[in-house]
Design goal:
The protein is 26% helix and 26% strand. By secondary structure, the chain is an alpha+beta fold. The two termini are 35 Å apart.
Length: 493
Amino acid sequence: MDQTVIINFPGGIISPGNLYNILVAATKVKISFVRFGLRQQLLVDAATYNLATFTGELDMIGIEYEVGKNQFPNIISSYPAEEIFIRNTWVTGGVYKDILDDIDFKPRVKVNICDGNQSFTPMLTGNINWVASVQAEHYWHLIIRFPKTNVIYEWKKLGYTTQIAKLTKAIEKIIMAHPSLFIDNEMAKGEDLFDLLDEDNFVLKIAEQPVILSNFNLPYYEGLNRYNNKYWLGIYRRDELFSIAFLKKLCKLCLDTKLGQLCCTSWKTIMIKGIEESDKLNWNNLLEEFELNMRHAANELNFQVEDNCIEGLELKNYLVRHLSINDTRTFGICFGIKTRKKSEIFSSILIRKRYLLNLLFFRLFPVYDILCAQGFNPNERTGEIFSRSNPKAILPEQIRRAIYKFYKHRQISLNTPEKMIQPKAEESKQAAASFFYQCNSCLTIYDEEIGEIQNNIPPGRKFINLPEDYCCVLCDGEKSNFSKINQAALQTL
């Protein structure tokens, strides 16, 4: 009976005054909690019978919103990480704000504006992705991901800071004017898109080399922490629900301590930067008043779950419990849970739900595929299926095996910390023919590269060389019950 009201905060930057007024409007219709979304938005669930009253209040205070559908996706940016998690960069807070101020229209495609020297904010989950150049100040790489596809194209030119808004508008106009070419078309070509762009109207520069994306390394993003001579506060909620009573007091404290903004992040959290030493006690008192826990386990903080997805949250909590019980290390990994076909999830290891029987209104026998991003880099668009059709009961063990594969890959690539993004066509050519062996009963994978440490089988041991009494670690199925699977054939977009 609820409908979700979506309020965008461009770049993830929130005015405490505006947020306070929104919360007051929500209080009038007896809403007690709000959430934040993956694209740095505010999500308010309003009962259908109160919806008109709530949106009427928003109209009165001049707040733009959408109900249910997100036709104008929020512009996200790495501004929340600026100063805190990003060092040695020319992209200051003022640069982000100048670009956002120039974008005087509401994009209908997803736009990301990010510093390449960070991995806190997803860089390539947008359709128009601007990534700051490390070679030329105030120039930006542009990577297109065509809407409703995983087709990526990196433009060979760089755009100037003051041109970002203008270029974004022009590119979006071309995409929307030719939907058959560029929307939901796996054959979309970047060359065709930029042939339609009048480059003479823009300040451009040839890119000397492809964009370089930093390796994923998620910082611990909650708690009251010192930086420079000030503090920042990050607040995470396990159930994604933020009490309106708490947020109202938080907004008031921001205003009382002359903090003109707070931020929401792509991890569905909020951050307050610039807290003075003299105000630290006030912030601690606020946290104590609402009994907010500030030290969640890192293996819980590195999950991404779809917006408005209780099922995904429950699965996340289920997996986190097993990771904690087994004391599994997850540093450097981002897990994603996907239950919908077209949702956008940022992940190194993706747990994707599907049904073995899916006919019209009947969906039976839910199972989960585990996919690993290329190089376990969540900014990459392609990956391989690590394990298919897993029942929920064996997911924790299969996730543990995927994690083991990640750390093996990490050891091999320690001397190559930076990776250039490759066009999709080149990725396809590089897919090597390799195989793994799958139990026909429970679909457990034996990967010759990994072996099975728990059975004293070292990495590199060929399946054919396993003893004849070898059996599946999960269901005790015989060696003869395993099938050889072509791994390259299972690669997915």
